[in-house]
Every structure is written in structure tokens, then in C-alpha cells.
From TrEMBL:
Gene Ontology molecular functions: DNA binding
Signal peptide: none
Keywords: DNA-binding
Pfam family, one: HTH_31
Keyword DNA-binding applies: yes
UniProt-annotated stretches for the region Disordered: 31-58
SMART domains in UniProt: HTH_XRE
InterPro entries listed in its UniProt record: Cro/C1-type_HTH, Lambda_DNA-bd_dom_sf
Name of the protein in its database record: DNA-binding transcriptional regulator YiaG
Gene3D superfamilies named in the record: lambda repressor-like DNA-binding domains
Residues covered by the HTH cro/C1-type domain: 62-108
Length: 124
């Protein structure tokens, strides 16, 4: 009977160790899966082929910048080189700008109200 108790204790300890190992492997797998989905977006090649700085896009920031300037989506689209409908889609998160469009957005982002008014006056 004593040998069975020792074997049972040994088996229970082995099972507990295996459960801990499975738990840590599952956690590591989740972390790798999260990193892969983030890395897949970040590692998409730029269409322009340039190794410039990576630009990030935020729909909310685009909408707030346009509101701050006090211009319509169509006017903002003229500055960026896209249609007003495209600006609406970007702001609502229905679409995302391409790399070249991100560069245009970045250049417009640095403009103030007077500069925007001047550029829109030149465009008309």
C-alpha cells in the first residue's frame, strides 16, 4: 500500500507540473499570435518603396483637425488630394489612407488656418 501512495504522490506532482507547463505554453502562444497580427500590419511594404518614417493614422485626430480648421471634408480633401467622400470614410473608420496619402495628410497636419485658407484660395 505504501508503494501505491508514493506512486500516486509522484503522478500527482507530474500532472501538476505538466498543467503549469501547458498554461505557460498557452500564454506564450497567445502572445505570439498577438504579435503576429500586429506585426503583419506593421510589416506591410510601403507602396512608395521609400524608407521614410512610418506614419500612423487616427480617424479621430483627422476629424478633430478638420474641425479645428473649420473647413468641410471637400475642402480638406482638396488639400490632401482626395475627394470629400474619402475624407468622410477615413473619419468614420470605413477606410484607411495609403502610404502616399498619409504623407499628404502629414503635410496638411502641419498647416494653420491662414495657411489652409491661402492654399484653398490658390486651388480655386
Amino acid at each position: 500500500m505504501e508503494t501505491l501512495k508514493k506512486a500516486s504522490v509522484h503522478h500527482r506532482a507530474a500532472i501538476a507540473a505538466l498543467r503549469r507547463q501547458i498554461s505557460s505554453l498557452e500564454k506564450e502562444l497567445r502572445n505570439v499570435a498577438k504579435g503576429t497580427s500586429r506585426g503583419a500590419r506593421a510589416s506591410e511594404p510601403d507602396e512608395s518603396g521609400e524608407d521614410g518614417p512610418k506614419r500612423r493614422f487616427s480617424a479621430g485626430r483627422l476629424a478633430s483637425h478638420r474641425a479645428k480648421l473649420g473647413i468641410s471634408a471637400a475642402s480638406y480633401g482638396k488639400l490632401v488630394g482626395v475627394s470629400g467622400q474619402t475624407i468622410y470614410h477615413w473619419e468614420q473608420g470605413k477606410a484607411r489612407p495609403r502610404a502616399a496619402q498619409l504623407e499628404s495628410l502629414a503635410s496638411v497636419r502641419g498647416l494653420g488656418r491662414q495657411q489652409v485658407a491661402q492654399r484653398l484660395g490658390e486651388a480655386e
